[in-house]
Structure formats: C-alpha cells, structure tokens
Amino acid sequence: MLSAFAVLLCVTALLAYLNDRFLHFPTTVGVTLAGALASILLIVLDALGLPGLRGWAAGVLETLDFTEFVLNGILSVLLFAGALSLNARQMLRQRRSILLLAFLSTLISTALIGFAAYGVFALVGLDVPLMWALLFGALISPTDPVAVLDLLKRARVPVKIETLIAGESLFNDGVGVVIFLALAGAAGLGGHGAEVSAAGVAGLFAQEALGGLAFGALLGGLGFVLLRGVKEHTVEILLTLALVVGGYVAAAALGISGPLAMVVAGLVIAAYKHTLFTPATQELVEGFWETIDQVLNIVLFAFIGLDVLLTETTGAQILASVLLIGVALAARWISVAVPFALVRAREGYGAYTVRLLTWGGLRGGIAISLALGLPDSPYRTHLVTVTYAIVLFTIAVQGLTIMPLVRRAVDATPEET
C-alpha cells in the first residue's frame, strides 16, 4: 500500500509539474487530463506489443482502491478543509437557497437522470434495471466540492454567488451519498441485507442525513470547547485533525452521514475561527488545512485521470456515454432552475446564476468512487464507463470554459450577479 501510494504521489507531482510548466490549465483540470492521456498512452503501447507497463500501472491503482481512497480516506479531510475556508456567516444568511438546492435539486436530478438513463441504456442495447439506473442518477447528480472550490478560487465570482455554489456543492455531496445508500438499501445492495421497504428507505435517509447534520454540529461544538482554551498552533492543528479523522470514523460506526458531519463541523469552526484563534495562529492553522486540501486535491484528480487504465469500454457504452452527457447537463439545469425559482426573487440572485450553477456543476472523485464501489454484476461496467465519461467531460470541457463564462456574466450584469 505504501509503495503504491508513493508511486501515485511521484506520478502526481510529475503531472502537476508538466501542467504548471507547459499547459497552464487550472491544476485539477490539467492533472486530470495529463493522467488520462498517460493512461491512454499506456493502453496504446500495450496494444502495440509493449506489454508489462500497463499491467504494472493497473496493479498499482488496484492496490490503492479508489473507493477506499476517497470515501474512507481523504474525503473527510477535503470536506472539512473546504468548509473551513468559507465564510460561514454568509452561508448562514443564504441557508434557505443552499439547503433547498442541496436537497431538492439532488432529488430531482437523481430521478431525471435515473429514468432517462434507463431509457438510454435500453436504446443502445444495454440491459440495465431501473433500480441500477436510479443508482447511477444518485451517484452522478452531486457536484464535486473539490473540483468546484478549486475553480471558484480562480474566478471573479461575487461573494454571494461563490457562497451559493460552494455551499450547494459541499452539502449536495453528502446528500447524494445518502440518496445512493438509501437506493442501494432498497435494491438489497447495501449493508442492510434484503431489500428495504419504502418506509425503511425514508427512515434510512432521515437517519443518515439528519444524524449527520446533528453529529456535525456536536463535533463542531466539541471542537469549539477544546480549541477555546488552546493557544499553541501545533495543538490546534492536531485537535482539528483528530476531530476530522476520529469524527468521520465515529459517524461511519453510528450509521450516519460522515460527509455531512464534516461539512457542518467545518462550518461551525469557520464561524468562530476569529474568536478561537489569534491572528498568528489562525494564519498557521488555515495555511495547514489549505495546503493539505490542495495537495490531496491534486492527488485525487491525478488518480481520476490514471484510473482510465481500469475502464474497459464497448461501442454501446461509448454511445450511451455521449447521450448521457447531454442528459446530465439537461437534468442539472432543470434540477437547479425549478427549486431556484422559489428563492431567486426573494434573495435577489441575478439572471446568470442558474447558468453558472449548471455549467459549474462539475463531477469528480465522489461519483467515480461510488460507481467503483458497486458490487460485481453485468451492469456495473456500464455504469462505471458512463460515470468516467461524464466526469472527464465536466472537468475537461466545463472546467476549461467556466472561467470565460463567469467573466462574461459578471461583466454583463455586475449589479445583478
């Protein structure tokens, strides 16, 4: 495991170096594309009669296990760091729109993509049951907070819109995982044995979501009490790190949403960081979490690109992927526009907000880790291939074009947006 991680870290550093020197793309985008191109090159070399290298690289990636690496590894750190970097008080002022988008938009998108995917798979000749199609809708609907936050830091997005986009992506990540687990339970694929009834699914959703929110608030309160009496920055860093890692493990043991707990805990600490930390220690603590966030962020997206090595594709899967990229975009727009109509006039959002939320809805490691975590079946490879296609499209195409869209939107209507 250590050797495999060392290889991944060295390859990631090389890809980041090449991007910084020659490509000059946003780091997450450049590293993902470079990793994907490297994977394709290894596949081509293997096909040309140079065996061994592709198998060795695939073995390294399989040793690390993407699902474990993300869901039970770095996700807690990334979500806490992302929440800690935000203006928690501004998020509290926009809580209605953020929570409405995070919950209602994710539910709408899951249904739209799930039923559409069922039809698309049938159209191209792939036999995928409706429940598996809905699972695909659940895993692909949440926007990835890691990818979104990285791009928002580079864009001239007004604070109100930045908070809305970042807040939604942080919360809908946890909501998407909860929906996925509830659907998996209904299909008898989770850790709940046989299929769960409709009431059981609703109860599981409430337990995961509400329990995660409450536990996160408890963790944040505990962190506040402990940090209030400490002035040494190394102890403060150690306490926050223990809060994240220990809290995430405890959430998993309690059967509640660890991702939602980490977001809430991070926001509680962020809301009181000016009280808890002196200016000098705050700079050191925030610097530590920002550095950890950026390094793990780059490693994660290099992993996404390199994992193309493990994806076997067929013509029907490629056709389904092309069609479902359009479906995912359309579903994202509808799922944002419908609930947003309820809050836009009241909270004064501009005309370009829905457009930015739609095109800025990048997918990333969470979607891939959920897809790869599906049990072996005849349908799993279909879902994994399409998930990779959508993730790579959002990172490569949407990630590279969101910045010009933001600039045009802000320049066109600065007083609204």
From TrEMBL:
PANTHER family in UniProt: NA(+)_H(+) ANTIPORTER NHAS2, SODIUM/HYDROGEN EXCHANGER
Lineage: superkingdom: Bacteria
Cross-referenced Pfam families: Na_H_Exchanger
Localization in the cell: Cell membrane
Family the UniProt entry places it in: Belongs to the monovalent cation:proton antiporter 1 (CPA1) transporter (TC 2.A.36) family.
Membrane topology qualifier: Multi-pass membrane protein
GO molecular function: potassium:proton antiporter activity; sodium:proton antiporter activity
GO cellular component terms given for this protein: plasma membrane
The species this protein was found in: Deinococcus soli (ex Cha et al. 2016)
Keywords from the UniProt entry: Antiport, Cell membrane, Ion transport, Membrane, Sodium, Sodium transport, Transmembrane, Transmembrane helix, Transport
Record GO biological process: regulation of intracellular pH; sodium ion import across plasma membrane
Lineage: Bacteria, Thermotogati, Deinococcota, Deinococci, Deinococcales
Domain Cation/H+ exchanger transmembrane: 11-407
Protein name per UniProt: CPA1 family monovalent cation:H+ antiporter
Sequence intervals crossing the membrane: 69-86, 98-124, 130-149, 170-189, 209-227, 239-272, 322-342, 354-374, 386-406
InterPro entries (UniProt xref): Cation/H_exchanger_CPA1, Cation/H_exchanger_TM
